[in-house]
């Protein structure tokens, strides 16, 4: 790689939670907007393509489908490239691919060439930008990560509100070829966003520290390009299954709500306004949900908060299926925008919380691959159901049941199979705790030694006192024996007084000094 710094995520640098991270967040905001809004914005040119190439609407719809399939299905490839070369070079190359695809598409002569250029090349370029931007966002934010994810996810509705009117203006003034060419130039901004993804580098060490680190450094295991060990994590497996079920129905209502409004007899412009309402609510729902998810009592339970968001979204679909007029559809779009924004803000935050920073680059690629299958199956299945029944209510009921089922799977499986582990303190806290424990141990040791010395002094005093009493008792017994022996002369009165005085003095000395004082012999 020459002079390129490979950000393998294993440097152990603490997330700054700000600083240059806000520039990374801005880049992620733009990339998310392009990735999710571009497939929908391209649909503005479908009528022109149908007229140009003489194809049907279903043929042009494959352009958006291929774009989404490449965005999701290229996940493992993106993971391998990021783990091999780093986020910044992958994103800059991806920006070139995204722009090149649209520029080549402006010279296309048949619909197959549009599939290959706009669908495959541009879709691959957007995928090479979307996934690395989320990885870098995860590395730059830790405490404020839920808020950062919510703000970055808001790029999708903002870009949709901007790109769709822009596409209409470009089509009116320059035609679809000129519009594709200008959009290709616009996608070069992905390269600028990729340049913002500066790798995290630890603080510089002194020469002595570097030499000591080289001496103590052990050979690191070879870094895996795609870490399949994430499947050993029960939490990751549960999340992947739930996400796949959710995607089956999550994108169905935005696709069919406009047609549903037209079916009820509303005008085209009035029906299209529903998507604008949905997107406007979505813009504010995502950052707000990210802010709530960052609260101390919510963040440890973000999995269950995500389950609530999915239940909210699915219930909205179930109730919205009974809409009979335009007003009820407007109310449905308001609540769907709130729930849709909550799901969008939390889906990658929950994945980051489950697998951690080191394995996130591999985990997101594998999850997106599984979701790619569901994205290709979900909306077409709903379309076939609509063709068979001609009733929009069944489409919304199916979507709502799928999203609610995913929430139930995620919530119940986490309760049954995931064991709660006590939160691990960060390294700095561990050092502080270690220092505190060491100090407490030393204090306890000193206290214990003082207690032992105090007990030893007490034992010595009591022992000396007992010895003194034994000496005094021995003298008293000797005096009695001498008084009872008739052969021995009786001691003089002065000698008796001297003996009593010596006994009293010995007792006082024993009590005062803590040791036995041998009294003078009275004999």
UniProtKB/TrEMBL annotation:
Keywords, in A-Z order: Cell membrane, Membrane, Symport, Transmembrane, Transmembrane helix, Transport
Major facilitator superfamily (MFS) profile domain residues: 21-418
Chain segments carrying region Disordered: 447-523
Transmembrane segments: 20-38, 61-82, 89-108, 114-135, 147-166, 178-197, 236-261, 273-295, 302-320, 326-348, 360-379, 391-417
Gene Ontology terms, MF aspect: lactate:proton symporter activity
Membrane topology: Multi-pass membrane protein
Family: Belongs to the major facilitator superfamily. Monocarboxylate porter (TC 2.A.1.13) family.
Name of protein: Major facilitator superfamily (MFS) profile domain-containing protein
Lineage summary: Eukaryota, Metazoa, Chordata, Craniata, Vertebrata
